[in-house]
Amino acid sequence: MSAIRQFARLPAPLIDYIVHKSHATIPSLPRIFSTSYQQKGSLSLETLDASKGDRERIVILGSGWAGYILSQRLSAKYQTLVISPRSYFVFTPLLSSTAVGTLEFRTALEPIRSKRKPNIEFMQGCADNMDFGRKTVTVEESVVDHQQGRAMRGDKNKESETSGQVTSVKEARRREGKRWEISYDKLVIAVGCYSQTFSTPGIRENAFFMKDIVDARRIRKRVLECFEIANLPTTSEQLRKYLLTFAVVGGGPTGMEFAAELSDLVREDLTKLYPELVPKVNIVVRDVAPTVLSMFDEKLSQYAMETFSRQGVEVKTSNHVQNLRPGLPSTDGSEELDIAGAQGCYTLTTKEDGDVGVGICVWSTGNMMNPFVQKALGKTYGFPSESATITSGKPFKELDANEWMIEKHPKTGAITVDDRLRVQLHTKPQPPSNSASDSNSSSPPSTPTSTAALSNVFALGDNATIRSTPLPATAQTASQQALWLAKRLNQNDLDREHFTFKNLGMMTYLGNWKGLVQTDGVMGDISGRMAWLIWRGAYLTMSVSWRNKILIPVYWFLTWAFGRDVTRF
Amino acid sequence: MSAIRQFARLPAPLIDYIVHKSHATIPSLPRIFSTSYQQKGSLSLETLDASKGDRERIVILGSGWAGYILSQRLSAKYQTLVISPRSYFVFTPLLSSTAVGTLEFRTALEPIRSKRKPNIEFMQGCADNMDFGRKTVTVEESVVDHQQGRAMRGDKNKESETSGQVTSVKEARRREGKRWEISYDKLVIAVGCYSQTFSTPGIRENAFFMKDIVDARRIRKRVLECFEIANLPTTSEQLRKYLLTFAVVGGGPTGMEFAAELSDLVREDLTKLYPELVPKVNIVVRDVAPTVLSMFDEKLSQYAMETFSRQGVEVKTSNHVQNLRPGLPSTDGSEELDIAGAQGCYTLTTKEDGDVGVGICVWSTGNMMNPFVQKALGKTYGFPSESATITSGKPFKELDANEWMIEKHPKTGAITVDDRLRVQLHTKPQPPSNSASDSNSSSPPSTPTSTAALSNVFALGDNATIRSTPLPATAQTASQQALWLAKRLNQNDLDREHFTFKNLGMMTYLGNWKGLVQTDGVMGDISGRMAWLIWRGAYLTMSVSWRNKILIPVYWFLTWAFGRDVTRF
C-alpha cells in the first residue's frame, strides 16, 4: 500500500508526460522509456519486483499453446510473467465445436489469471520492442482493444516502418496504447502467427477466421443469422439461396472440422427449426491444393472425402479464390441491392467458378508471421555480450556493434532456434557482391559471416523453427516444446539433452460422429465411430482445468439430448 | 417448394421496388404494403398461410415474460406467430448472475424457435404499424441489428414523428429495414418497456443497462476490464481509484441484486487474482428516493441495508444523478487525459457529491414506454367495426371514422386494458373548452365522449395497465397475465371470468448467500441464508427448459468449487 503513495514522488518529467500527455511537449523517448522512471512509479512494477525476491523472472510473450503450457509448468522458483493481448488461452481443437454451439465458448478457454497458479503474473499487452543487451521488453497495453479475441490479420500497426527502432516522437504519439518496459532474466517468444490470406483482396475485411474465441462467436451468430434472414418474407429466393451457401476455404483439419460441425448443426438441429430452408443448404469446402487433409494417409483422406460427400459437404480442390466482397454477385443480370454485407450476402470470386453468392466465408488456410516477428524482430541489435555466445565467425570485438540480427527461416520468416529452442543471431548479411548472379527473382542473401546463440532468449511454437529439424506448426509441436522447456528450466539442465519431437499422431472430426485417427504407434490408423470416440476422449483428457473437464461432457450430453442452442446475441 | 418459384410471378411494381430499391422511384406506399402483393410472393408468408389451415392465427408482439409464456401455453388449435426483435426470451431474474459470471449467459436464455414447440412460428422483426380494421400488422425486419440484445433506450427511430401514420415516401426510404404485412385473427401486444433515463444527460450513451443479455455481457467484460486496466503499470493511482469505483443507479431489486453479485465477485474471486486492487474497490448504489428496496417491509429492507453495509456496498439515498460522461473528473485541478471512456473512466455528476470518477455506471431506474407504444399506437384509427364494441358514448354511425385512439394511462402512457386484458379505444379528446381552467401545468385532457373495447387485441405485461386495478410492472404480473390469457383462449371462455392478480410475494438476493423473501402467505417474511435457498430454488423451478434446469445447478456448483470464470472476450 505504501508503495502506491510513492506515485507522488515520481520524477517530474514522467508526471508531466502522464498528466499533460495530449498537450505538452513530450520529452525525448529514451528518457520516457528508461526503466528506472517507469518502474519506480508503478504499483504493478513495484509489486512485481517486490514479489520477485531473488528468483529469476521469466517473461513469456504470448498465451497460446506454447506460452500457456510453459507458464503452467514452470516451478515457483521462477517468477513467471505472461504478457499477452488475450486474458486467456484458447484450446483451439474445440473452437469449431463452439462455433456451431456443440460446446459453449468458455469450455475452450482457460483464464491466464487463476487461483490455482498464484505464481503466474499477467499483464495484458503486446510486446513492442526488445533490448537483448539491457534484457528488457517494451510492452504496449491492450486491455481495451476492439480486435481482441479475433484472429489477427496484420491490420494492426500497419503503418509501422520496417526501418528499425522507434526513434521519432511523432511515431510514438501516433500509436494508441501506452507503453512500459519490463526487465527479464529469461525471455520466451511464443506470440504465434496471424492468419495467412495470401493478400487475396477482401479476405481480411470480409472473411470469418477461425483462430480465436470471438471469431467462433461471430461465426455462430452469422450462420444462424443467415437462416433467420433467409426465413424472412422480404428475402428474395435468390438471396435465400446465396445466404444458405456456406463457403469454407482451406482443406486442412481446421477447415474440414468446421465444415463437419456445420453439417452436424444443419442436419441435427436446423432441419427441425427451418424445415423449408435446410434442403437449400450448400456447404462447400475449397482448397487450392489437389487434395484435402493431405497430411493423412491416402486411405484415411479417401475415407474422409466419402464421409463428407455422404453428408452433403461438397469439396472443391484445385480451386483458386480471387476475391471476397459484400453484396450480391453481379452476374445475375439484375442491379445490385443496396444491402450491406452482413444483411445481405457476400460474393466469393474463384478462378474456376466465377462469382458465387455466399452467406459466410470461413477462412482457414494456414499461418503467416505476425508483424512483431516480421518487424520488431527484424531490426539490428548491438551484440548482447552478456547473454550471447559466438558460435561461428569472427570473435565479438571485431564486429560492428549494431550489425546483429535475429536469424529467421528464409521462406517462412519464423525465428530460427537451435535444438535447445534458443534464439540465434547472425550478422547482417552483406549485399551480394555480384548482382549478375541475381538470376532467381528472389536471390538468397549472401551467407552471414558470424553467428551467435542467445543463452536466455527462447522461441517456441508457430513463430519458431528448429534449424536442424523443421516441425509442423501445430498445437502438438508447441505443447511438446513448452513441456520440454519447462522441464529443462525447472531442472536447470538445458545442456543435458536437446529437444526431440515425438509424433503422437493426428486426429480430425468428420461429422456425424465419425473421425480419423492416424498414429505411428500400436493404434495405427482408425476411422469412423471409434476414431470419433478417441477424438472426444483425447480432447477431454487434454483439457486443462477441472472446470472444463466437467463442463465439456455436460455440454456434449445437452447437445445430444436437447440439441444445440440457437439463440443469437 | 413450388410455392417458392412463384416469386417470379410477383407483381411488377414490387419486383421493381425490391430490385431497384436504391435507384428507382418508389411506388406509393399503400401499394407496396398492400397485403396481397407481399403475401403472394413470399415463401415464408405462403408457408405460414398453408400451415395455418383453418386455425386462427394469434400474432404475439414481443418475446419477454408476457409474450414468451403466452406463446408456450397456447394450444395447437391456434397458429401462434411470435414477432420480436430478439430470437430468445430472457429469464431476467438471472441476468445479474450472468453479468458477473456466476452463471453462463445462455442459462438465462430460451430460444423462441424450439424443437419442443413446433407449432410456434417466429419472425425476427419489430412491429411498426397496425390496422385494426384490416387486422394486419406491419413488421420491420431486424435480424441484423447492432443494438440487438441490448436494452433499448429510445434511440432507435428517434426521428420518427408523432404526427400519425407513415405517409411519405421519404420517410419510408429513410428507414433501414425492409417491411412486410401480416394478418392476424387475434393480436397480443407485449412489447415491454425501454429503460427509463429521465432524460439525464449522457446516460443513454454511457451507462450500462440491465435489461438484455448483451447488456449483461458488456457489464461482465467492462467490470473485469476495469481491474485489468487498473493493474497496468501505465495506470496512474488516481485513475486506478476511479476505475475501481462501481456505480449502480437505482435501488430497486435489479440494481441491488447486481450490486450484491458484484460484491460476491470481488470478495470471492478477485481478491485472489488482484490482491493489491481489491482494497480499493468501492461499490456505491445511488437512488433518488429516501430508501432502497422500498417495496419490501421496513424490517426486511433494514436487514438488507445492514447486509449491504457489512459487505462494503455503500448505499446513497436521496441522491440525484445529473450527468454521465467519459473521461476523468475535471475537479482534480489537472488537465484531462485524452483517453476515451472505455479505456479510462467515466465521470458521474450528482447534485450531492459533484463529479465522481467511476469505472462503470450500471443504470436501473425503471421503465418508460417504448416508441412503438408511444408513437405507432398513439395514432388515430377509423372505428374497426368488425372487432370493436362501443362500451359508452355515441353509437358508431355518428362518429367520425378517424377519431378513435388507443386509450392510455395518463401518467405512464401504458395501454389501458379491461379486466380481460382487451385493448380499449376512445374517441379523440376535444381540446378543453375553457383554457382558464388550466391551473395545473399539465391539465388532463377533457373526457372523451365515447369508448370502445377491441375484442381481438390484447395487451399484457409492462406495456399495459388494467384500468380498474393497476399492477406492478413485474415479471410476476406479466407471467400471470400470460398464463391466464392462454387458458382463456385455449378454452374459449374469455367472458367466463376476469383476470385477478395473486401476489406470490417478492424475493431478492443480497450477496454473500443471503436473501430476502416476503410473502402474504404461510411463509411470511424470511431473510438470510434460508431466503437465499428459496431464491435459488424458486428460480431453478421457474427456469423453462430442462437444458437450463440442468445447466444452472452445474454452473452454481462450478462457481462454488472453482470460482467465476474471468476470461474477457
From TrEMBL, chains A, B:
The keyword tRNA processing does not apply. The lineage of its organism: Eukaryota, Fungi, Dikarya, Ascomycota, Pezizomycotina. Residues 433-452 have a biased composition (Low complexity). Belongs to the NADH dehydrogenase family. It comes from Stereocaulon virgatum. It comes from the Eukaryota. Residues 57-373 form the FAD/NAD(P)-binding domain. Pfam families: NDH2_C, Pyr_redox_2. Gene3D superfamilies: 3.50.50.100. Residues 145-161 have a biased composition (Basic and acidic residues). Keywords: FAD, Flavoprotein, NAD, Oxidoreductase. Residues 145-172, 426-452 are annotated as: Disordered. InterPro entries: FAD/NAD-bd_sf, FAD/NAD-binding_dom, NDH-2, NDH2-like_C. Residues 505-565 form the External alternative NADH-ubiquinone oxidoreductase-like C-terminal domain. This is FAD/NAD(P)-binding domain-containing protein.
